[in-house]
Amino acid sequence: MASKRCPACKLVNPASSERCDCGRSFVDGSMGTSLDDRIASRQANRVGERPAGLTALGLLNLIFGGLAGIYFLILTSQVSSAGPAIPGFVLTILGVMAVTLILLIAAGIGYLAQKGWGRVCGNAYAVMSLLSTLVWVLMVPVLIGWTTILGTVYPVTTLVLINTRFKDAFVD
Ligand SMILES: [Zn+2]
Fold this sequence. Notes:
single chain; 2 domains; two-stranded antiparallel sheet; binds zinc ion; mainly alpha
């Protein structure tokens, strides 16, 4: 006998198949993923089928990154024009800002390209941003305001989205 009929959906399958297209196993009768589901999940993971939310997040990263970059350049020029001796803690703040900024922009590019390193950069950016906001608030509680809210809400949103809803959208 070169073929067998599935008892569940009556589809005729080759004798060698272990699972019918509907998902029923010929071995033990258990139900697995159907052929349609397997094709659908494979297509959903293909590059070019990027979820709209991930595109939006990537673009927001680039916009925020660009704005923060301009702010960073203004800040750097003000600091350097203030005098030749720049205090160590100011250099530390500028360094942390620069790294966070690079991670933010790299993550944005990685989201749009759906690369695994985009998710790594996104997580690193979010953690660094939250830690700097925390240190900032502990040092200068007077300055709690919009910057603090942005420095908390966006990283948290990023962490949640790239590790849950968009987790499978990163292809490699
Ligand atoms: Zn079947």
